[in-house]
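Per-residue structure
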Amino acid sequence: MSSEVPSVDAGLPHVQIQRLSGFRGQEDWGRWTLGKVATAGLTARQSQLATIHLKFSLPYPQQLLNLALNDIPLGKFESARSHQLYDISLLARLKAGDNTISLLTNKSNLSPGLKLFAPEDLTDMAVSLNEMTFSGIQPFTHSSAGLLYGASKMDYPAVYLLVPGGQVDLLSQINGSQVLKYRLLSATDGQTFEFRLDDQPLQRVRAERRGTLVSGNLTLELDGKLHHLSVTATSGMQQTIRVQDSVQRLEAINGPVPYYIQELRLFPQGKWTAVEKPLAGLGVLLCLLGLFAFLFGFRPSSQPSSSSAL
């Protein structure tokens, strides 16, 4: 696989990057986008599902980034602090022929009225892309765990993933009874989570209060074909009076997002035996200890503000 940004790996045959606009030259860590709009053009021999993996940071606080493929939104991100890092995989459908992925942001190094985040470099840098890779899909199978599309890793705490677009997607290629185990943290009052299989509703669960950890198991009968699972959260109701709570601490580091994931995975029905349950309990205890340290002892470290930090 090429180290270029963007790149296409061997798991996505007959797809090529043909043109770039709004990208600075390749550096050893990745590449900058320039100005408010950057686009990458791809050609695909046939229509197919693909994985777009991105690792990037936004150098300005409250900077927005909108991603789209062929004018169809893929994700929206907003930074809470400077140089906030995102690490996320997105599910996209490439059409046969020409495709365009676009990155649109509202701030850049030379934006009028804004302080230069890199005064020593007077180019119009906007988004630092450590990785932007187009690859084949990664479904859950009997032998390997698939990707959680739309869920981004967090700097801290590691017990959560954030869902900036409000929806996470899973692909399954498993035959037999499976259990979808979920532990989801609500970010608003009255938030509803909807589970869908191949766009057909399966179940809805509601969190009455912001900061509620909604958990449960959902049994699925699968036939070995490729199936699409999704979990979507409604916006709910914003608090009229903001109180100090766990979600507020998360938002201070990562910005506001629709909801968070503590656990979301598929495993065979009946897998959790009496021997495995104590180990699961230990895992939960370790997660709770990490969360306790986050809530009562964590202070986010300062981030470098120059391009050389990346």
In short: The two ends are 22 Å apart (CA to CA). Residues 276-297 form the longest helix (22 residues).
